[in-house]
Write a structure and sequence with these properties.
The chain has 169 residues and is mainly α. It is built from 6 helices and 2 strands. It binds zinc ion (ZN).
Length: 169
């Protein structure tokens, strides 16, 4: 039985007292080893999983209550590596727009180091991961590192982008 979720009003406490015949020595009563054994035998094979209704009631009781630090830590440890990419409920796969796909490329390939076209390094110019076929599929081989100048030229030549001067950083 989970503890801490049952609200003991005065009325309930009075009822409990009546059940125990007002015997205060009965409070904190522990089952004997013999009765524990019997209870264990009686429960063999019985399912202890909670009903859907019970789960709903519990979730309503806990709604809006802040989690303790310890609980948060346990939850985060339990979820490590379980919500990556496809397992994330917000994962849109191929339907994702270009920006999150670029973030995904950066996460897997890291920062681009040199432009594959002109050889500029990340210290000289700003580098991007450019999509090769402009279809933006989730294929890491479809992305090449280009400096902003080569990237712009590449997009103009292959994707019909207008010639907009990039900001020099
Ligand atoms: Zn370049």
């Amino acid at each position: 039985m989970p503890s801490g979720i049952y609200i003991r009003t005065k009325e309930i406490l009075n009822k409990l007292r009546k059940i125990h015949g007002g015997n205060k020595y009965h409070l904190g009563y522990h089952h004997s080893e013999e009765s524990k054994r019997k209870m264990g035998l009686a429960n063999i094979g019985k399912s202890h999983s909670m009903s859907k209704e019970g789960k709903k009631r519990l979730s309503l009781l806990h709604r809006g209550k802040p989690l303790s630090q310890e609980h948060r830590k346990k939850l985060s440890e339990a979820h490590i590596g379980k919500q990556c990419n496809e397992n994330n409920p917000l994962w849109k796969g191929e339907k994702a727009t270009r920006a999150p796909k670029h973030v995904w490329v950066y996460r897997h390939k890291g920062k681009p180091q040199t432009c594959v076209n002109c050889g500029a390094t990340c210290k000289e110019r700003k580098l991007n991961w450019a999509n090769v076929n402009h279809k933006y599929h989730r294929n890491l081989d479809d992305y090449i590192s280009l400096c902003i100048f080569c990237h712009r030229q590449y997009d103009i030549n292959n994707n019909g982008y207008k010639n907009i001067k990039p900001k020099i950083i």
